[in-house]
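User: I want to check something. If I give you two sequences, will you return the structure for each one separately, not as a complex?

Assistant: Yes, each is folded on its own. Here is the first sequence with its structure:
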Amino acid sequence: MTDVFLNNRLIGFCENPKEFVEKIRQLRRSGELPPELNVAYNEDEDIVVIFTEKGRARRPLIIVENGKPKLTSEILEKVEKGELSWDDLISMGIIEYLDAEEEENCLVAMDESELTKKHTHLEITPLAMLGILTSLIPFVEHNQAFRALLGPKSLEQGLGLYVTNFLIRADTDSSFLIYPQRPIVRTMTQDYVGYDSHPIGQNIVVAVMQHYGYNMQDAIVVNKGSVERGFGRSAYYRPYKSEELRYPGGQVDKIEVPSKDIRGYKSEESYRFLEKDGIVYPEVEVKAGDVLIGKTSPPRFLEGGFRVTLERKETSEVVKFAEKGIVENVIITESAEGNKLVKVKVRDDRIPELGDKFASRHGQKGVIGMIVPQEDMPFTASGIVPDIIFSPQSLPSRLSFGHMLEILAGKVGALEGRYIDGTPWNDENEFDLRKRLLELGFRDNGTETMYDGISGKMYKVRIFIGNMYYLKLRHMVAGKIQARARGAMQLLTRQPTEGRSKEGGLRLGEMEKDCLVAHGASLLLKERFDSDRWIIPVCKNCGLVAVYNKPKNKYFCPVCGADAPITLVEVSYAFKLLLDELKSLCIYPKLILKPKGE
């Protein structure tokens, strides 16, 4: 007997699992069972699984019987006329949705010409097997599978016009591209998702070549002239908000310019941009530490039924550490509780710089390795200067042929002034594109003779150059750069705080230590690893940490007494903390001391 599971619960058994599964499918297609149900027979485990729960990825396929699809030309005509809808096709048993489990029992044909009597289903269009984002990538069927998965991730991170009303929204951590463009090489999916209303990239000229080693591996060399004309220019928005909260006993916050007698008063310079109402004015340039919304709060801490202090404290909203920008707008409104609410939106203009991340739609991502003045960039015989120089080293192992095809197709589109269809499995043929390029007076393989902008000499090889769509990703140097000399430390471990927002340190681990030793710079470790340096008195007899009496300037051991021999040992505070925790667990952490020479 074969076990039958419904939503991963055993509900019974059956004798002929294949007949049982086929019967359920027939009932589903006839409408007696819900279309959301999926059933499959797992031969390896000899179980029948039925799923009806939410959250399963399901996709539509045309049902095939005896090698012929149930979607005939007559039915298609009725669909075109509007006599039949999509729901009608499902209820008539012509199209059904399959999940990953049921698809294991099926043989799906890509095209009607491939159908045999063994096939159970037919793709509506090969494009349907891809997700929305993947189907936005042109010529994606020519790429390695991993690049087809990585391409959508680049699209997710790309900056563009994410909404059209971004000026009146206060989204957290949002960016937008200032000059977004529609791609020359497009796919059919763009029309259905409204991509032209919110594009996330720019059309640029790309040359596939090396440039003095500054674009090794994944790095790219960018034309400074292109940057100055607006390539990759974006703006970053950070909203700040503050509310006048009410507390028990009639106490309230107050948005105002804090007076000097307030506890926690910063400095006059910090409040220099505040107007009389305690709120910053628009279009002022601010930097980290500047107050945007001045606010004071009542004392809220009670001790033994009495207030510790009657002073109001400073709780202003300030620009975050390592951030800067221009105040875009100020909104004064009320919260749902009726309290005064102020929102200030700060805009930081981001111009491409060394280390900013860019990517093509084919998962070929890389950072800027160098920004070269336009006069030093290589140029073609007709005077075309590339916007980006892309490394040929990035292609052999990645096998992203779609990247190369897009450059070729983009070149044809730019020369003819038209959009090129790069829809997967339905794109313009490579040979047709090469033929058009030849007719336009260029070499059919997309290469051109180029000259070095610095020496003026002609390159001995022809360079592959064309147009393609490039994205600027949200990972920018301005949002990640971090350095620290001195700063705050944690209360427990006495080590530097962690994280960029807390002015934290950069942790040096085992592997970083090995690199310093390998470089012959091992003395640097003395400096790097003493951020929590601590000196402890240790008893030579019992090996426990002794006690230091500061007023009398005397050491004594709590176990051996005042006459015990004590020595000072330099350790990390984290180790001293470990000794304390071991003692709290009644474990004896005996330190055996030896002279340095032994």
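And separately, the second sequence with its own structure:
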Amino acid sequence: MDDFSIIGKNVPYTDAKEKITGKAIYAADFRLPTMLHGKILRSPYPSAKIVHIDTTKAERLPGVHSIATAFNTPGTKFGPTKSDERLFAKERVHYIGDDVAAVAAIDVDTAKEALGLIEVEYEILPAVFDPFEAMQPNAPIVHEDMETNVCHHIELHRGDIQRGFDEAFVIHEERYYLQHQYQAYIETNGATAAWQGDRLTVWAPIQTARILATVICDAFGIPRGSFRFLQTYIGGGFGGKAYQRVCLITAALARVAGAPVQIILDREEDMESTLPRVPMFIDLKMGVTKEGYITAKDAKIVADNGAYTAMGVVVVDTASTRVDSLYRLSNVHVIADLVYTNKVPTGMFRGFGNPQAHFAVESMMDTLAEKLGIDSAEIRLKNATRTGDVTVHGWKIDSCGLSDSIRVAAKASGWVEKRGKQKEKARGIGMACGLHVSGNRAIAPAGDGASSQVRIHEDGSVHVATSEGDIGQGANTIFAQIAAEVLSVPYDTVYVDPLDTDVTYFGVGAGASRVTMMGGNAVKAGALAARERLIDAAADRWECKRSDIVLVKGILVNQITEAEMTIGEAATHYIGMTGGSRLMGEGFFRAEGVVVPDKTKYGNISLAYSFATHVAEVEVDLETGQVEILKMTAAHDSGRVINPRAFEGQVEGGLAMGIWYGVGEQLVFDKGRVLNPTFTDYKVPTIRDIPKLEVHIVGKEDPNGPFGAKSVGEMAMVPTAPAIANAIYDAIGIRFTELPITPEKILKAIEERRKNGSFQR
């Protein structure tokens, strides 16, 4: 076993003190001199023509400074994946919540009052809310300048799908439905923006600075050098803060006002206007041999995009392909359509299309196992992807602990003793597996990679700067551990600077579970470069060979003379030696061998892949339909774990989120309106709802990761919901193919089976 001093150790988060003492500055805490407060006027209709806007009364309200509309702001179309958005609706609104105008005032209450004084005349137009209806030839077109409501279509073929089904002993077909899910972060979306001439600065809790920079520069027609972004503390993101329209609206309002402006969404408007998980209908057909080996997989996906594409295109691409590398498949066919509707736009959410596809496949795996009369753990082991595989989509698997995770999770949960043997108590146990990327080239086609700057000061302290950003998952802690390990210095002497694009170099940000892999490798490279400069400085001062010098516990030692020098002393000498240059190492990392997939989506999209198995134990109350999750067992292959406690926290958080995806959370709509836009009606789990969680680390270090590490954050919720669904089936013999599995659905299913005599309890 490698002898590390910091890597693999439980150290506190770098920002723990600021958070627990309340000193951390979140978006709503940020202040600038002369700053105004903004609120947004939103459409009350899902589809309507804007006939006239009159802001006169609002402008006369004392305390109102400025009002922004489509008539005094840029009208250029933009978007992170498809240019179908504008800053404000001009001729037409496309969903309830669409941005129509924004008010800047001396305080929030005045801004809210002014919204009620803006007069907008609408002409209501036909709307469409169901993606299947939206695909019909006579359906209302959501975007008048487009010929169809299908905004993205893919069809992929691998192998010979018909031959695969011909070789199958058992074939099963099923339709699965996955719902809208809101990210439910504690901190809502918000931003502060200020212009200095034509230069824009934005302070916001954004996960991916590069996406924001691209969209803002496109929307306002400014060069990249005219935009600066500073990341505030983030009170939860989960993908929902990868792209925030509020940043653009705040910037537009600040330009009109000629003063800094802050907009913080309240909970209701956040739930009605931001980007929840993309809902999908998945028609899945799979075939297996008599022995249980998969021969073919055919999927048809229809996804409800909502009114604007945001990140839906990449989410659907993920759902169409990623799960296919979980098992050894040869014959695959998929058709997927992302469809405009007059509902809230959808986008990124932890797992990024993977939980949807995994729910379908992992539910199907249990059904196929039952039809064959074999154990559902056994069928997974037979088909599991292994180290050295090149999968059906061209993914290169350099490390894989999937089979180990199945065995560990099964043993830890008592799988053999419990499976199918607790029906008299309406208790059941279910398993599901999953995989996820550790970085994804598809989200950064211009060139995925990362960079860092590692500076060593005269007092021996170390500062690290990257453009990846910490979104609460502990990225800065991991970066500090990596730098401390390379430089052989105490962890508490390393500081990771907040993300500031005027200071840092290239970085994509927190998306596709890439931060530890890409950012960690870049920090390691930067620390190694700084280490080399330390040795240069010591060799110059001692007039010796570089090979004579070693770095031990932050002390440079001359092995010949036994002279010693602190790294602070070396940094001081380096300044004089170079004529004033700071001792800094620059690190750059590029994922070699990782490609942007071709038009057929073939190619190795990630440097590494994480794997996991989750086992759920449940008890179903046959009188109320209530599902009690008794225990969740999770076995994860994330390579070498850099901080075990942080790793466990990520897995536990993912389990909690995945549990409620399975049995609770759902945005409910009526003709495009969200009916449950508050935490009173949209239920999220509390500590009382969390069962016993047991987390196991499996797998070995990955050859591509920093010290062998891979990702964990998104992987942590991918297999959870199907594991629960499979456990419910084991408990009561009823298969649910639609999420969430609510008490109402369970009672209805039980009643139907009692009527036809197929449920005897």
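Because they were folded independently, the notes below concern the second chain alone. The longest helix spans residues 515-542. Residues 488 and 553 are 5 Å apart (CA to CA).
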